[in-house]
Write a structure and sequence with these properties.
The structure holds two protein chains of two kinds. Chain A has helices at 2-33, 40-58, 62-83, 95-118, 141-163, 165-175, 177-182, 187-209, 220-234, 239-259, 262-279; strands at residues 131-134, 137-140. By secondary structure, chain A is mostly helical. In chain A, helix 2 packs across helix 8 (187-209). A two-stranded antiparallel ribbon of chain A has the order 1-2. Chain B is built from twelve helices and 14 strands. Chain B folds into two domains: 35-151 and 287-352, Response regulator (Rossmann fold), CATH 3.40.50; 155-280 and 365-378, Rossmann fold. In chain B, helix 6 (180-196) links the parallel strand 6 (171-177) and strand 7. Chain B has helices spanning 11-28, 48-67, 87-99, 112-124, 158-166, 180-196, 214-221, 234-246, 264-269, 291-302, 308-327, 332-341, and strands spanning 35-41, 76-82, 105-106, 129-131, 146-148, 171-177, 199-206, 227-231, 253-256, 277-280, 343-345, 350-352, 365-370, 373-378. Classes of the chains: A mainly alpha, B alpha/beta. At the A-B interface, helix 1, strand 2, helix 5, helix 10 and helix 11 of A face strand 7, helix 7, helix 8 and helix 9 of B.
Chain lengths: 291, 395
């Protein structure tokens, strides 16, 4: 019995890492610009399908596709922010709603463009499908790899935000756009880069996750909702919070699926989310009031 | 008397004019209008790949009928709309086909859910529709104008279980997706297992949005079943195989309803797909009536081999033509009755209906991925190769 519990715990922790990777980009964008990127799930899927095409048509491993997907989505993110979102007035009470509607429309555009390119069939690729044997426990290789890469990416992001000039500028802009501008920072450039990095993280996540879960061009809604639930649970814009929330999601889902069945597992995270919103609406690590 | 008539228009002139008018009226009468065949099909959206194969099957059949002179001396026109896989959209489109386009013949959309949604309005309009919905509740007498042109759901996996029983396998773990088709299929699997003396040691259903099957497969594997069976579609079949391989959960046989029949199964799983069994209602290698020509024509027109969706659609349209020709008119009730009396060999197999329109003739077959190719392995009289059993384990 203990073996099973340890097995499930490890699986949950690993899946938590993957969920974190899928949510980090959204967290960065919301934290800095208060923009809810509803096209987040679509960006993940584009990254994944790009990795699929590179693998099935050219035999390129997902390890190499990982930075390529990140680069492509960075460019797309930069273009989106510069061309679309910068033109939208964000002042006033309707500001967030406007950008939300814009990303909602963007989601449809990206999803349908992907449909024209890749069709609507579920796609995945065979990579690292074996198991990592730890005594009596067998863990999926692809999951271990994705989780390790996810934690590396989160660490790199943290280092970038804490120790580099550009990263500190991003955090400054997140704290106060006006204050940052007063200090001479180019807020527009910061926002453009941030959206690009957020999109790049989504694309990179997609290129890894497609080895675990089949992707389909119209299935982005689920991914966006899951990512948003994680960052809201952890406290919007808070990276440690997102990590804890992602791990909670991973562990709860795996244990619930094993002991209560798959249907309760799908509902479990939302039950927790509702409970948190009732008792601690700012999320586990969020600050009360307007950030 | 005629010759002494003094009016401007002599009777001879009038008679001549009327004769001329009568003959010219006959020649300016328009050629008979084309017969309109209508449907909505899922051209975009998550379930479009199999639906597009269905559409192609219909199109090929209509082309062939038109090339041999059409029906009742009239050519067929196909009027199609995209329902995007949405039942309420399909209902609106069928309403449009009935009231605006005033189609003469209706054929079925893709998938049980959509067919069930449009069944009431089609039946109310008293239009016969050969339907490609596998679930049986549509053909229990509630909608007498629907006839089933595809194998019934509960029979889909019967041959796979027969194969397992023939190898002496006794215990089964059953994983079921929580949607209409798999749930009804699971009922059929349980009935067949009981008949064969096999025991269902594990039975669990899961939400269609489930992406991670690690815990579920681990739980099933702990009971060491002989056979792991999935009432699935493509994504979940892949997920279950992945979870089994990556956690080293073995069994003597893995079989899934829908999943292995699609080429993406192998594309996504690579070598892990080899040895996995799937179900299909049709295979290009079958020696059914007209199949070789059908495969050749389909390949030539669409540059891809037909799958079972294309085959059932093609057969249903061809039989529709046959029923209409037998009746000699577009009387829907008479055509429906003709369908119920049909006992025909088609590319899919033998078409025969029960008195309420349920398909009793069509069957299903078992395929297995061997060395990166789909091979028909059961029943033996239709098999291209022997099934590879037991499963070789995950290397």
């Amino acid at each position: 019995m203990w073996i099973t519990i340890i097995n499930l715990l490890l699986l949950g922790l690993l899946w938590g890492g993957v969920y974190l990777l899928m949510a980090t980009g959204l967290n960065l964008i919301y934290g800095v610009m208060k923009v809810v990127n509803l096209a987040h799930g679509d960006m993940i899927i584009v990254g994944g399908l790009l990795a699929f095409t590179l693998f099935s048509a050219h035999g390129i491993s997902p390890i190499i596709a990982f930075p390529l997907a990140a680069a492509l989505l960075f460019v797309i993110g930069v273009v989106v922010q510069f061309v679309i979102l910068e033109r939208i007035p964000v002042k006033g009470s309707l500001g967030e709603l406007r950008t939300l509607l814009a990303t909602f429309g963007l989601s449809y555009v990206i999803a349908n463009t992907s449909f024209l390119i890749w069709g609507s069939q579920f796609q995945s690729l065979p990579f690292l499908q074996g198991s990592v044997q730890l005594g009596r426990i067998a863990l999926p290789q692809a999951l271990v790899a994705a989780s390790v890469l996810a934690f590396c990416a989160a660490l790199v992001l943290h280092l970038w935000l804490t120790y580099t000039m550009l990263g500190k500028s991003v955090r400054a802009t997140a704290q106060s756009g006006l204050g940052a501008a007063c200090c001479g920072l180019n807020s527009r450039l910061i926002r453009v880069i941030t959206f690009g990095v957020g999109a790049a993280l989504a694309g990179a996540a997609g290129s890894l996750v497609i080895t675990l879960i089949p992707f389909q061009t119209t299935a982005s809604g689920e991914l966006t909702i899951q990512a948003f639930t994680i960052i809201a649970l952890g406290g919007l814009g808070n990276y440690m919070g997102a990590l804890i929330a992602a791990e909670i999601l991973g562990i709860v889902e795996v244990f619930t699926q094993y002991y209560l069945g798959s249907n309760p597992a799908s509902a479990a995270i939302y039950v927790i989310f509702i409970a948190v919103l009732i008792f601690r609406p700012q999320g586990l690590f969020g600050k009360v009031g307007r950030v | 008397m005629l010759s002494s008539y003094n009016g401007r228009f002599s009777p001879r002139l009038i008679a001549g004019a009327m004769l001329l008018a009568a003959t010219s009226l006959g020649s300016v009468q328009a050629a008979p209008a084309n017969i309109k065949v209508g449907l909505s099909i899922t051209q975009t959206g998550p379930y479009s790949p199999p639906a597009i194969f269905e559409l192609r099957g219909y199109q090929l059949a209509i082309d062939e009928i038109n090339q041999s002179g059409g029906l009742l001396g009239r050519k067929l026109d196909l009027i199609k709309y995209d329902d995007q896989g949405n039942p309420s959209t399909a209902v609106q489109l069928y309403q449009k086909l009935l009231t605006d386009d005033k189609v003469d013949l209706l054929v079925s959309p893709y998938q049980t859910d959509l067919t069930a949604a449009v069944a009431p309005i089609v039946n109310r309009a008293k239009k016969v529709m050969p339907s490609l919905a596998a679930n049986v509740e549509n053909y229990s007498g509630k909608y007498p104008y629907l006839v089933q042109a595809i194998t019934q759901t509960p029979q889909y996996m019967t041959p796979a279980l027969d194969l397992a029983a023939s190898k002496g396998y006794k215990t089964v773990a059953l994983l079921i997706q929580n949607t209409q088709f798999p749930i009804q299929l699971a009922g059929g699997i349980e009935d067949e297992a009981k008949k064969l003396g096999m025991k269902i040691v594990f039975k669990e259903s899961y939400d269609p949005s489930t992406t991670d099957f690690s815990a579920l497969v681990l739980k099933a594997g702990n009971l060491h079943p002989d056979v792991i069976v999935g009432a699935t579609y493509l994504a979940d079949a892949e997920g279950i195989v992945r979870a089994a391989k990556s956690q080293n959960v073995g069994a003597k046989m893995f079989a899934f309803s829908i999943g292995p029949v699609e080429p993406e199964f192998h594309k996504s799983l690579g070598a892990a797909a080899n040895g996995i069994f799937g179900t299909t209602l049709y295979f290009p290698s079958l020696k059914t009536k007209g199949n070789a020509e059908f495969v050749k024509a389909f390949q030539a027109k669409f540059n891809v081999a037909p799958d079972y969706h294309a085959a059932v659609a093609y057969a249903s349209m061809k039989l529709f033509g046959k029923a209409v020709t037998q009746v000699g008119s577009l009387d829907q009730t008479k055509i429906r009755d003709a369908f119920l009396k049909l006992s025909e060999d088609t590319v899919v197999g033998h078409f025969k209906l029960s008195p309420t329109g349920l398909q009793t003739g069509y069957r299903s077959y078992v395929l297995q991925w061997q060395d990166g190719k789909q091979v028909l392995v059961w029943p033996t009289e239709d098999a291209q190769a022997a099934p590879v059993l037991p499963h070789g384990g995950w290397k």
